[in-house]
Amino acid sequence: MSTPPLDTPAPTTLTEPTNTSTTQAIDPIARTDVPRPVTDTPTDPLLWLEELDSERAMDWVLGQNARTEAELFDEDFAATQEEILKILDASDRIPMVTKRGQHYYNFWRDSGHPKGLWRRSSWESYRQDDPQWELLLDVDALAEAEGIDWVFSGAQMLRPAPGEEYARALIKLSPDGGDQVRVREFDLPSRAFVPGGFDLPVAKTNVSWADADTLYVATDVGEGSLTLSSYARTVRRLVRGQDLDDGEEIFAIDQSHVLAYVSHDSTPGFERDVAHDVIDFYNSKTFVRQEDQWVHLDVPTDVGVSLHRGWVLFSPQTAWTRDGTTYIPGSLVLADLGDFMSGAATLREIFVPTPSTSLQSIDFTANHILLNVLQDVSSQILVCDPANDFALHPLDIGSPLHSFSISAVDDEDPVCDDDFWLTLTGFLTPTTLARGTVSLNPDTEGPAVPQVVKSAPARFEAGDFEVSQHFAISDDGTRVPYFQVSPRGLPLDGGNPVLMNGYGGFQTSLTPGYLGALGPGWLTRRTKEGRRGSYVVANIRGGGEYGPRWHRAALRENRHRAYEDFAAIARDLIARGVTSREHLAATGRSNGGLLMGNMITGYPELFGAISCGVPLLDMRRYTRLAAGHSWIAEYGDPDVPGDWDFVQTFSPYHRLDDALPEGIEYPASLIWSATSDDRVGPVQARKMAAKMMLMGVGNVRYHESLDGGHAGASDNKASAIMLTTSYEFLWRHVRG
């Protein structure tokens, strides 16, 4: 499905009382749409900047863009941008693939195809250094032919009949890189869109194949069909040849919830329709259709639910007690779906986190469960063997302070149904893709060692750099981890340019990953004294590095914990002599942009420069802008007086009204966004920059990409410009 996060949502969070029955049949159309409370808001003199593309608002944007570009876009900028673009467009990148049938599918962008190619290859060819690709869709050619700057947003395949190859797909195309997409039916054999086929207009759409001639569509169908979060409230069954308006409504939710969607599970032997009522980011309900009724899988709404073949799996966000047993947050619990639906299930605990571990994701081969786990933010891979009493076997894959990810290749292909992909990367370690088989070795009782398929080359000289992990003590005594990438023998005299990165929200974990673009953009640059850059990743609360407890520690009224953690790491870097205020830069995007806004307004004494990207900043009005209403569970509702009491304490736009202590200045601040961002929107960034300028803050700059959506860029060139703009601004202010 197409989710509505700032980045990625967890399944659910607040507990509601459970019924004594295991399942509950409901009327899928019943609803109570209660208007949300609204309180008066103070007059905002900059509300005109919320006029997204009005002439006066865009005149201001273009004027600010010209000012920023005149200062930054010089020869040094062009040289860095060119280096980064070469990395993004490099032909020797690993073309990651997804297996469907006998083909391996890949989407690829490079200098000759900036909008991208959707293509496929065979396994025999893919294993070669230079695979042969069958071109399915040239997005650049499509954009030129149709006069629309299409951005490829994914494809959904229709499962073929037994013994046949995949032949149909639903292609999602965004006109500007935003979340709204047009969905069109595509024929793979002819490599063309189906004449008269399914074609859904541009909207925030979730869609699922029900069968070859039927779709389940959650989209904008007019008045009353959207939630307050701007996502679909209703789901329709659309039959081939039928107008969307005539599709039968089969599921609907309350307008105050986030979104509704229905999917069809076409796994042979386990065919079923599943509906989801996403109440908020951490609460949802799951239903299975039985005899034309939606039957609720009756667990607390903050217990994540997923189905796989004959199993139902649960992941509680808070402690969950059932039948006298309590399952701790972040655990993985499994039951037979049929038994659970009938009320006779025996629940089995598969994974139990410790204070230093957390489950990040799972996947399935034909006979095993693959678990991606973090141990103090370093990756661990566990393979669960259901045939052996669900025993867990660690996969020995290498050194700490790296990231590993395991996923199934194709659990339905009898030739490789226990095969898995394994990716390995680190801050200074280019990505490697390997493939293995979960055939338990009788000598080691563990999975066989995977074989390397492809490796990416190094993009910068990293031999003189090292990676270390440290812990800072936050204001409440919590130990907060962070990674440091720096030159070996770093002089601890406070004179080194350091770039901090943080996020701290939505249970999203920041883990080690190769710093390809950041190499030339930051690490290998030199100051006049010959010092090179260092990079720090802050694993602050609000994220998922230690599971739900780490995330919930910074929810709503406790949001300040995330900001205190980031500030504690900054102080630790200064206290250790790694850097000093005038040499310390910080960057964050989206929810990380809100983090940066609070560093600007709450901790200006710690930072010399800040890059604040696609941010939330006006927390008084965020629920009324773009998809903001969907994040109330994370931040609170400013239209509820009790919530506004604490929300205003981390609303950077309002914190600007607080007087700075004498002798303290705001750090140099680059605030940037994208006109086409329909998730957060650009208007909060505009207003923050404009307000700082009106206050007489001289070192604030604003830049707004005209397309690219929440990603801020729709192709590699735009990405290179975006990254270079941020790096260049920060480097010039902290290099000394």
TrEMBL record:
UniProt keyword list: Hydrolase, Protease, Serine protease
Residue ranges annotated for the Peptidase S9A N-terminal domain, each copy included: 40-265
Region annotated Disordered, chain positions: 1-42
One function term, GO molecular function aspect: serine-type endopeptidase activity
Peptidase S9 prolyl oligopeptidase catalytic domain: residues covered: 534-734
Coiled coil: none
One Pfam match: Peptidase_S9_N
Compositionally biased tracts (Low complexity): 1-23, 31-42
Top EC class for this record: hydrolase
SUPFAM superfamilies per UniProt: alpha/beta-Hydrolases, Peptidase/esterase 'gauge' domain
Entry protein name: Prolyl oligopeptidase
